[in-house]
Every structure is written in C-alpha cells, then in structure tokens.
Amino acid sequence: MPEGDTVWHTAAKLREHLVGRTLTRCDVRVPRYATVDLTGQVVDEVISRGKHLFIRVGPASIHSHMKMDGSWRVGERAVRIDYRARIVLEAGPIRAVGYDLGVLEILERDQDDAAVAHLGPDLLGEDWDPQVATANLTADPDRPLAEALLDQRVLAGVGNVYANELCFVTGHLPTAPVSAVSDPQRLLVRAREMLWLNRFRWNRCTTGDTRNGRQLWVYGRAGQRCRRCGTPINYDGSGDRVTYWCPTCQR
Fold first, then answer.
1. Cα–Cα distance measured from residue 90 to residue 127, given in angstroms and rounded to the nearest whole number
2. Residue 51: active-site member
3. What is the pLDDT of residues 143-161, one digit of tens each?
4. Cα end-to-end span (Å), the chain
5. Between 184-197 and 160-169, two packed helices, what is the crossing angle to 10 degrees?
6. Is 193 a catalytic residue?
7. Can you tell me the distance from the alpha carbon of 135 to that of 146, in angstroms, rounded to the nearest whole number?
8. Which residues form the Formamidopyrimidine-DNA glycosylase catalytic domain (predicted)?
C-alpha cells in the first residue's frame, strides 16, 4: 500500500535512473494525454510530495498518484509492459513503467505546484514543520484521530498503515477524538520518525523487528494476539478505511 515513505523511495529510484537522461520513448496510455510525446526532452527532476510524485521533463511535469494499487518500476529494458501500464518512459537502456496509477496527468511544469497546494506539511519534505502540522491536527479537537491523520490537508504522507500503527503506539483507539491526545506534537514527531526510518524500505517496519511477519503492531493482524499484551487484535472494515486495534492497549 503506497504511503509517503513508498512514494519517497520510488522517487529516489526513478531519480537515480532517469535524471539527466534524454527520453527516447514516451507512451502515455491515458486517453486525455495519449498524444503527449516528450521524446527528446531531458528528465531534470523527480520529486515526491506526500503521496504525489512528479517527473519534470523539459516544459512538462508528469504527475502521478498511486492510490491503493499503483506502482512504478524502473530498470533495464526487462521491466515488463502489460495491460496495467499507464505510462512507459524510456531513456536509452532504461525503462520506467507506471502501473495502475490512480492519477496520471501531464501538467505545465511551472504550474505543477497547484496540484498539491492543498496539502499540509510533508512528513518527508523540506517543508516539514511540526508546529504547523500540530495546529492543523488540533483545529478540530472532536475529529476521530485516525481520520485526522489520514487527511492530507493536515499533514502529507500518512496512509492507512501508519494511521493504525500510530494510534496503537500512542495508546488511543482510532475513533478516539484528537483532544484525547495529551501531546499531539509528540505524536506527529513520532509519525515523521516512522516514515523517515522506512524511507529506503519497500516493506515498512514500525515495531523495530524487521523479521518477516513481525514488522507491524496491529495493521493486517486481525484476530492475532497483540505483541504487547496477548489480546486478539480487533478489526473493522465497515467504513471507507479499515481499522485495527488492541482493545486492551488502546483506550
């Protein structure tokens, strides 16, 4: 599930392979932009902003958002192109393919910031400001904590996995109001630490134990025993977002 750390890592990989290279192929498989051809243009930058990714090529900016199931793959020409591909970029021997991207659009480069102007401070960005993020989080004290953490206008980068894990490590139910958090800035500093430590991993870890099956506290562990107290983990998938929690450790 792509969250801020995954997008940051993806941008780093694309940057490593593409920046400074001239595109030799540009195949956009979205009807609105199917005629766009950036062949011959140089890739200048690849940056992430929360869960958004921008590939800046000549006068254009390729903006993508992976949503739930999207991904980018980059490497030698062996990178597969199939029905899931929404865009194919090649630069000599290098091929980058965007699969099942929830958002893919070609923007004017000097105006691409407008696509992310609504976002709060980016947990992995140069604009990260815990005081601004704290003010955003506490602006609605009655809002459920997990819902507030997932609101990208509050802070950018937290997805469902981190929202559930942060609620666990701070001892709050996902449905607890923001006002229940005694030190919200400390919670947000913890959020940044989690994403920062995972920014070079594809398989994120919040427990400190990177062994397979031991990386997460509650997410995806419905019915399994809590790693702290042994109580079975609860699960609710009835809403727009799934939630996991320990009924003993979280109040």
1. 31
2. yes
3. 999 999 999 999 999 999 9
4. 27
5. 130
6. no
7. 16
8. 2-87
